[in-house]
Write a structure and sequence with these properties.
The protein has 403 residues and is α/β, with parallel strands linked by helices. It is built from 14 helices and 8 strands. Bound molecules: ligand G3I.
Amino acid sequence: MDSGLRKLLVSVAVLVPTLCLGLTRNATASALCDPLQPTTCTIGELADQLGIRFGSTLEDFEITDSNYTTVLLREFTAITPENALKWYTNQPSRGQWEFGAGDAVVNFAVESGLDIRGHVPVWSQDAYTPGWVKNITDPVDLLDATVEHVTKVMTRYADRIDRWDVVNEPLLTFGTSRSASVYWTLGEDWIGNVFRLARTLDPDAELWINEFGSDWVPGKHEAFLALVTRLVENGVPIDGVGVQTHRLPGAVLDQDLFERQLRDFTALNLEVAVTELDVPVVPGDPNAFSRQAEEYRKVVAACLAVAGCTEITIWGITDSDTWLDRLGYFATPTRPLLFDDDFAEKPAYTSIRNLLAETLADRRLPETGSNPVEMIGLAIVLIAIGGSIHRRFSRRITRMIAR
Ligand code: G3I
């Protein structure tokens, strides 16, 4: 075949499927969810099509609450066990293994097709470490106990959990130095060693480090970034960084700053996620829910703007589930979630859903035939093909006709 004609045919073979890509992508959309009509979609459905896990928490006792599971299965694509996979739950005393709640939550999620964030083999805060662990004074013994615990928990769920918060909260809750935790007696590199162990236990799982308050405690983002950077530079097998994002009542997020903070982690070639989002309100504020909706919108927008932000998990479903009202720090009720006590959608829900829908509609290539720019491109290609065929074959065709 003439080389010019071959090049032309190759270009057509490449161009036509490219122009048709809009059709292919649209074909993967749910038949019922149309992002141009956001009320036809759920937040999880939209996030899923944007490649983002949209999670909530789950406790074992919530599995039997059909109101809870109805909303969970309708609106979310992932769960984080709120307390069922914590050390104090799984091994409250040495050798006393308790996996009833963990198994129930994990199995429910698997059977329901929900992804799971395994939270959390090691929580680096004495306040949430079982007494028997905190009281170990011999570092060799503590190392044995840590290796045994992480091994038992991660291997039990290796076939069902693909993303782990391996270490939670390595920094001081309201500060920038290392956390108040017995694990630091294992040496400076204890976090790296736990991650190396985790990789050998489940080579296929994503391994994450998760931190509280880096979005608002002064200097904490920088301290967390420095810690994660050290881990990466030391070759520690870490895949992702969880930014919990428990907001303060009435606080106003600097969206650009938050987005830059997320990017700081993806610049290290790591994934990043908003892992525990809640936005408490100030009781009595007449504009509480509209302010809250705007704060939720900014957090989600920042994640959507960052390639590599792969998950947004909300820390509960209804306002009555929240840990914040039990905490005693803030005036109650804090009403920090997307659904009210009766499982009705709040303005924050609508603002997130609409943002996800707009983003999805913008990102989707329009169907071939509906976009003027595509149509002009297609016309130019066809004219070029026609012209080339005419130039190359007209004399031959004329000669054939003459014969
Ligand atoms: O299970 C006991 C129950 O037997 C007892 O009757 C009851 C009485 O208070 O307490 C129950 O345990 C509580 C547990 O939640 C289950 O409800 C604990 O006291 C309570 O401290 C615990 O709070 C959890 C907290 O972590 C501590 O583990 C919150 O639900 C949970 O939302 C919170 O989640 C953490 C993340 O894991 C890490 N990031 C911060 C986030 C908020 O603190």
